[in-house]
Amino acid sequence: MVCGDPTDLSFEIFSVNESVTEKRLTSAIGSICWILAGTFSALVFADRWTSLGLRFPDFWYTSRNFHLLMCVGLYIAGWLALRNSGDPEPSTTATPMFDSLTLYTRSDCELCDKALKILRHFGERLPTIRIVDIDSDPELQELHRDWIPVVEIDGRVYFRGVVNSTLLERMILAREDRQRSDSVSSDATEQVEE
Q1: pLDDT at res. 191
Q2: Close Cβ partners of 98 (under 8 Å, ≥ 6 residues apart)
Q3: What residue spans define the domains of the chain?
Q4: Gap between the Cα atoms of 117 and 105, Å rounded
Q5: How are strands ordered across the β-sheet holding 156-160?
Q6: Does residue 43 or residue 130 have the better pLDDT?
Q7: Distance between CA atoms of 159 and 122, rounded to whole angstroms?
């Protein structure tokens, strides 16, 4: 038996779609600025410092005093846009960072419902949530009675009573960092062996 409706998804989901779209747009603007700046720099160089004999339109010669300023401005705008665009969001096909997750609950438990919502918020980054009602097992009642809900991850209890979403996110990020560093070190080992 599960506290509350396990299919209830009426909790707040923090949308990342807008930030991903903003980052992509900012990145595209930065790239366009750099391309324009590079093209404009090549034209300024061809006009001023080569003897190619290129003939530019008349407006080119009336705005000559601002050419270098425009080049520098485009480079700076591109650099700022690319710097603020950051890394793109991780792929949507995230893999769970842990092997098992068990939520110990009991009937009519408001904290259990909140814990389940928090765990579901992290969706693909956590394994399938195994929900265990302690009321059906006297041994589990004795063990967890005063601390429900209890969250056990990979056989170790991490949360009792309240699930702290900030701490859970830090655990996930730490595991992701550890997996990244392990994969980098194993790649380096493979390269050395070759």
Answers
A1: 56
A2: 126, 127, 153, 154, 175
A3: 17-85, 93-167
A4: 13
A5: 129-133, 101-105, 150-153, 156-160
A6: 130
A7: 15
Whole-number pLDDT of residue 156: 92
Question: Is residue 150 within 8 Å of 157, Cβ to Cβ?
Answer: yes
Cβ count within 10 A of residue 143: 14
Query: Rounded to 5 degrees, what are φ and ψ at 105?
Result: -130, 180
Distance CA 118, CA 137 (A): 25
Tokens of 27: 């990145």
The amino acid sitting at 163 is V
Task: Give the integer Cα–Cα distance in Å for 115 and 97.
Answer: 18
* Bridge partners (DSSP) listed for residue 129: 101
The 10s digit of each residue's pLDDT in 123-141 is 888 889 999 999 888 998 8
- At residue 165, the 3 state secondary structure works out as helix
CA-wise closest residue to 105 among 144, 143, 133, 128: 133
> CATH fold of 93-167, please?
Glutaredoxin (3.40.30)
